[in-house]
Design a protein that fits this description.
This protein is α+β, with helices and mostly antiparallel strands. The protein has helices at 32-35, 40-51, 59-69, 80-88, 102-107, 167-172, 184-206; strands spanning 22-23, 29-30, 72-73, 77-78, 92-98, 115-120, 132-143, 147-153, 164-166, 174-183. The strands form 3 sheets. The protein has a 6-stranded antiparallel beta sheet with strand order 5-10-6-7-8-9.
Length: 212
C-alpha cells in the first residue's frame, strides 16, 4: 500500500554543472557540454550525500574519478553498478534493485529512504522510451489539482520547474531499475527492513486474486 504524503526533503543538484572540459587519462579532452548529459546519476549521488549529511564533492571530481576508476566508459556510458561503486567510495552503501515492484519503491520514503531510479527523459509515456534519465524519488503525495503525484529531484534542466509528476505518468516511464544509497551506518540498520519489504511486495504481486 502506497504511503501517501511521506515526502523526503532534499536538495536538487544539477547535471549541467561541470566547471571545465574533462581531460581523459590518454590526454584527450572531452568538451564539458558533451559530458553533462551523462551526469544525471552523479548529480543524484550528490543529492543523496547531501541528505545523508556527508561532504558533497563537485560534479567535476565525481566524473573524473568515475572515468579513472572505470565506473564510467565514454563508449558504454554509465551503468547503475558504476554509480553504486562511486557512492560507496564516499561513505554510502546500498544495493541495486532490478525489476523492483513499484509498491516496494513507493513505501521506502516512509522509512527515510530516497532512491535513484531510471525513468525516460521528460517522463514520456512511450513504453519504448523507458529509462535514460536518473532522478531521485522522494515520495508520493496527494495534490488538490492533480491527484496522486510523485515527488522527485530531476537533475536535468526540466527539473528546475518540474518536481512533481502525475503518478501514472511517472511510473509508466520507469525502466524497472532502482538504486538505494544510504550512509554506511544507516544502510546496516535498514538493509534487513528493505529486503523484507521487497519480499512482501513480490509476494503481493504474485498472489492470486480470488473472485467472489
Amino acid at each position: 500500500m502506497t504511503m501517501y504524503d511521506t515526502v523526503l526533503a532534499s536538495h536538487r543538484y544539477l547535471q549541467h554543472a561541470l566547471l571545465e572540459d574533462l581531460a581523459l587519462p590518454d590526454g584527450t579532452k572531452l568538451p564539458r557540454v558533451e559530458c553533462e548529459d551523462n551526469c544525471c546519476g552523479l548529480a543524484c549521488i550528490q543529492s543523496i550525500m547531501d541528505a545523508e549529511g556527508l561532504p558533497v564533492p563537485t560534479l567535476d571530481t565525481l566524473l573524473a574519478e568515475g572515468i579513472e576508476s572505470g565506473a564510467y566508459d565514454t563508449a558504454k556510458e554509465w551503468i547503475l553498478r558504476g554509480h553504486l561503486e562511486m557512492g560507496c567510495s564516499y561513505g554510502l552503501n546500498g544495493e541495486i534493485f532490478p525489476e523492483a515492484p513499484i509498491s516496494f519503491l513507493e513505501d521506502l520514503p516512509a522509512i527515510q529512504v530516497a532512491l535513484i531510479i531510471s525513468v525516460s527523459c521528460n517522463f514520456s509515456l512511450n513504453p519504448k522510451a523507458r529509462g535514460g534519465q536518473l532522478v531521485v524519488f522522494r515520495g508520493t503525495r496527494v495534490s488538490n489539482t492533480e491527484g496522486e503525484v510523485c515527488c522527485c529531484d530531476d537533475p536535468s534542466r526540466q527539473g528546475a520547474t518540474v518536481d512533481e509528476v502525475e503518478q501514472t505518468r511517472f511510473w509508466s516511464s520507469f525502466s524497472g531499475s532502482a538504486l538505494i544509497l544510504k550512509s554506511s551506518k544507516s544502510w546496516q540498520e535498514l538493509r534487513s527492513i528493505i529486503v523484507d519489504k521487497r519480499s512482501e511486495a513480490h509476494l503481493a504481486t504474485r498472489r492470486p486474486i480470488h473472485l467472489l
